[in-house]
Amino acid sequence: MRDNEYQPRSGPLFCRFGSFPLLLLTGFILRFLAINQPLIDAHLVRQTQTADWTRNAAQEEGWPLSAEVSWRGNTGARLILEFPIYNYLVIGAWRVFGNLDMAGKAVSIGLWALSFVVLQGIWRRLLDERQTFWANVLFVASPLSIFFGQAFMPEMCIQFCAFAALHQLLLYRQTRRLPCYALFAASGLAGLLVKSLEISHLYVVALLVFWKMDGPKLFLRPQHWIGGLITLAAYMAWTRYVDQVNAASFPAWTASVLAKDFLGEWVQRLNWHFYFKVVAYLAAFAAGPIGLIVACLGFSRRTEGNAFGFWWVWSLAFFYLVWGMKTAGVHSYYNLPALGPLCFLFGLAMPLVIDRLRKATERSNVGQASSLPSLGNSTSNLEAGKIPALLSKRALKHARLGILWVLLFVPLIAGSLYLFRQDRTIYEAASWVKAHSRETDLVVLRVNHRRDNNAYPEYPAFSYLAQRKTWIDTVRLSESDRERALTTATWAVMTQPPKQSTWAEKVRDHIARYVPLTEVTGWPTPGFGFVPAYSNEGFVVYRKESSPQSSISP
After folding, report:
1. Which of 504, 436, 448 is CA-nearest to residue 474?
2. pTM attached to this predicted model
3. Confidence class of residue 377 from pLDDT cuts 50, 70 and 90?
4. How many CB atoms neighbour CB 394 within 10 A?
5. Which residues fall within 8 angstroms of residue 241, CB to CB, at 6 or more apart?
6. Which residue in 32, 100, 108 sits closest to 336, CA to CA?
7. Exposure b/e, 51-65, CB count within 10 A at least 16 = b
8. What 3-state DSSP class applies to 539?
């Protein structure tokens, strides 16, 4: 029995195998545009954390699961970020490209393409050809998809695992073949080990599928017991290992502490500000404001044949309510789980919107034609009456569709440009220190040019770009560690507040409730021998007076 009960609409524009290669090529081009851009755009902290870990792991023997980080000074602190599937794919690509940043982006692009291919198998069972076309258009053009489809982060690895798990779950639902079940379980487990938060909600979909197939008898199926026990045992073993490694230097990054922090308090679920931020993220970076409205119209298109897609949509309630307080309301990449369901809803509704616009145009032109005076049957009258009416009808149709395209795609372009904006301050500061210091020099950094980063102690962007071990001085740094940092560091760098925020930053600061930054005086602490070495509007550099001069004069 087919899952899809739609009768596909034929036509070259909406031919599945005609539009897919063009959209895939478009997606590649959009993501390769930033292949040479340094890791200083959106989520540069998370990107450089991943890149720094990967670079340090590649310098060790074997296949380490933890690696030393560069932003904890000379402590030799080791960290586990996630199960390093993505990282070792990048190391392999690094040997081909010879450039780590480019390798990380290329692997993400490749995983995005694989995700897009697997997604077609899901659409084939849920959508007709027109709906598939529009679902694919949003998946290719969404700012979240464009940016994280090339970012030096494991998000596309998780997305590929999620789509692969859903595709195999659909095949198992249709065929009951155990290999499909095994691939579903393996894909889901891989995603859980990399980052459980972004894939755990899909087990709600799996539970609904199994219940619909077997009812209470699902508990008698040995594959569920075997798959469930293997998944649980592997996940628990991994989280315990993460706790053992990270507890030494990163106690706040142990799996148990992070889970408790992400869960938060249940009363937080009553805070309207969180839901406002989620909707704002989805409107700005997932589908655009009009695209989000169109996607909401997709709820009216539910049928028995596409029920699986709506289970996927409703599983987001689990994701946002359980994990949302410290995830989707803070970081745009934690809204990636909503991208696939939004594309599904958008694909369902978009053909309906277009058809209604065309019908509205036809009705309005019929009314215009009936109001024309009788012009007789002469050729001159035909040209004077009917031809202008036809031209008016065509112009009105194109005008309405054109307005729709503008309203849809201009916000998507704006959202993408916002995510790709560069933090030139930290890049220039890191570049200056890299050029004027020795590889063995230690640096102490005070971040004061971005409110979203100035109190974050695990800030790796400077140390990764400068390739110097760095202490991060924040309000969270203990006095003993601050004294050690100022004693052992050769250089001290402080970034300065921007003279004027852009309108986009003002909107972000208002939504995030950020307090404006002010200049910091009396840093670095007197008594440690630092003297000014260089300054500009963006940052100030101090050199320890007792340290030898660099071979490159400031």
Report:
1. 448
2. 0.88
3. low
4. 12
5. 65, 80
6. 108
7. bbbbbbbbeeeeebb
8. strand
Q: Which DSSP symbol is given to 516?
A: P
Angle of CA points 43, 45, 49, to nearest 5° = 120
Confidence of residue 366 (pLDDT cuts 50, 70, 90): low
Q: What is the mean pLDDT of residues 303-326?
A: 91
Name the phi and psi angles at 79, rounded to 5. Answer: -140, 145
Tell me the one-letter amino acid at 240: R
Helices (H), 196-306: 202-214, 222-246, 255-263, 272-281, 289-297
| Alpha carbons 77 and 64: distance in angstroms, whole number | 14
CA distance 81 to 458: 12
CA atoms 320, 323, 326, 328: torsion sign: negative
Q: What is the pLDDT of residues 56-68, one digit of tens each?
A: 999 998 899 999 9
Burial class (CB in 10 A: 0-12, 13-18, 19+), 249: middle
Task: Return the residue matching tokens 């073949």.
Answer: 177
Per-residue burial over 518-545, b = 16 or more CB atoms within 10 Å of its CB, e = otherwise: eeeeebbeeebebeebeeeebbbbbbbe
Please report, to the nearest 10 degrees, the dihedral formed by the alpha carbons of residues 269, 275, 281, 286 taken in order.
90
Could you tell me which residues are beta bridge partners of residue 532? Answer: 542
Q: What are phi and psi of 27, to 5 degrees?
A: -60, -40
Rounded CA-CA distance 373/147 in Å is 56
Distance CA 50, CA 52 (A): 6
